[in-house]
Design a protein that fits this description.
The chain is α/β, with parallel strands linked by helices and about 375 residues long. The chain folds into two domains: about 5-105 and about 110-240, Type I PLP-dependent aspartate aminotransferase-like (Major domain) (Aspartate Aminotransferase, domain 2), CATH 3.40.640; about 245-360, Aspartate Aminotransferase, domain 1 (Alpha-Beta Complex). It contains 13 helices and 13 strands. It has helices at about 5-10, 15-25, 30-50, 60-70, 85-95, 115-120, 140-150, 200-210, 230-240, 245-260, 290-300, 330-335, 350-360; strands spanning about 55, 80, 100-105, 125-130, 155, 165, 170, 175-180, 195-200, 265-270, 275, 280-285, 335-340. The strands form three sheets. It has a seven-stranded mixed β-sheet with strand order 1-9-8-5-4-2-3, sandwiched between helices. A hairpin with a 2-residue loop joins strand 6 and strand 7. Helix 2 packs antiparallel against helix 9 (about 230-240) and helix 6 (about 115-120) runs parallel beside helix 7 (about 140-150). It is globular. The two termini are about 25 Å apart.
């Protein structure tokens, strides 16, 4: 069996370092030392990401919600985001009382379409959440142009995209960066955790106060409290961070192997122009998704379908009044996308085998 992702096999590479880091945390003698340990990890991630500041929190959803609140987003404001993403992106907006403004995506890259942002801006629109979906950076040049014209905040959902780049600049530096470090991500803890990046000292100080939980009437609480990362999760991420570029290189090489060995008629998510895709997922687009997924499973290959239902058609967001047909690209993509295994623990032979089975199924 080739699993979609084998956590044990992936973590074996770092097991000694992870164990050493956890033992170090266990021996820390005070809350102060725990906080300093976390601050050290935050500085390491900020340095890696070429950001001035990083704040570690307990999930990617928390990161997004805090970033929205710190940006001044409030009740009845509208935040534009793609209908093709994990529901947490929209929940962060709802949780601060704002309204998700769903829009469509580009068919080739699966990223938010700047032109569709432009035509959907209203006087209630206050922010944009570009989602670097599956690890593929959005067209940030186009998004920044729209944001500047209409004075909109940018909160990047980089949950899939640690280390990804647009025009040689790491994501998380075009606005407030929000990263998930869930077990499924390229920089993965065990369970939930997240990171926020910013180059704005004022915002950094606001966010730091928001993650503090004290009986202080002057604190601007996040309403997702407690929301700080714990030192054990920080220790796991700290062990993996020095190897993140190697993980990305391995996954990009795996993606190249897929592109080389897949039959030419199989469509796949294209890399955004001027971008460095980090392939949290390798996504193919096929009319025969269920048939292919079942065939691969019968031949020992586990696949994944990420988003079967576009966000605008979920029961939770029925109140927004969207209907089937509103976002045609998203609706089509949600019926056709299939994620193939792309773990950094996969071998070249594994990928060649998967591709051979796809060819056999299509004959």
């Amino acid at each position: 069996m080739i699993p979609y992702k084998d956590y044990q096999k992936e973590n074996e590479i770092f097991s000694k370092k992870i164990t050493n880091n956890i033992e170090e945390v266990i021996k820390l003698k005070s809350e102060y030392k725990h906080e300093k340990y976390i601050e050290n990890f935050e500085k390491e991630f900020a340095e890696y990401n070429h950001s001035k500041y990083a704040i570690a929190v307990n999930s990617g959803t928390t990161a997004l919600q805090i970033a929205l609140k710190a940006s001044g987003i409030k009740k009845d404001d509208e935040v534009i985001l793609p209908a093709y993403t994990y529901i947490s992106t929209a929940l962060a907006v709802s949780n601060v009382g704002a309204k998700p403004g769903f829009i469509d995506i580009k068919k080739d890259t699966l990223t938010i379409d700047p032109e569709k942002i432009r035509v959907n801006v209203s006087n209630k629109t206050k922010a944009i959440i570009p989602v670097h979906i599956h690890g593929n950076p959005c067209d940030m040049e186009g998004i920044l142009e729209v944001a500047k014209k209409y004075n909109l905040k940018i909160i990047e959902d980089a949950s899939h995209a640690h280390g990804a780049e647009y025009s040689n600049k790491k994501v998380g530096n075009f606005g407030i960066g929000c990263f998930s470090c869930h077990t499924t991500k390229n920089l993965a803890g065990i369970g939930n955790s997240g990171l926020i990046t910013t180059n704005d000292k004022r915002l950094y100080e606001i966010i730091k106060k928001m993650v503090e939980v004290k009986n202080n009437p002057d604190l601007n609480l996040s309403k997702r409290t407690p929301c700080k990362i714990n030192a054990i999760q920080a220790s796991i991420l700290k062990a993996k961070l020095p190897y993140l570029d190697k993980i990305i290189t391995r996954k990009r090489n795996n993606a190249c192997s897929y592109i080389k060995n897949l039959p030419k008629y199989i469509e796949y998510q294209k890399e955004e122009k001027d971008s460095k895709h980090v392939y949290r997922d390798f996504v193919i687009i096929t009319e025969k998704r269920e048939k292919l997924a079942n065939y691969l499973e019968q031949n020992g290959v586990e696949t994944k379908i990420r988003y079967k239902t576009p966000l605008h058609l979920t029961g939770y967001y029925k109140y927004l009044g969207c209907k089937r047909g509103d976002f045609q690209v998203t609706e089509e993509i949600c019926k056709k996308t299939l994620c193939l295994p792309i773990s950094y623990s996969l071998s070249k032979k594994d990928i060649e085998y998967i591709c051979s089975k796809i060819i056999t199924n299509e004959l």
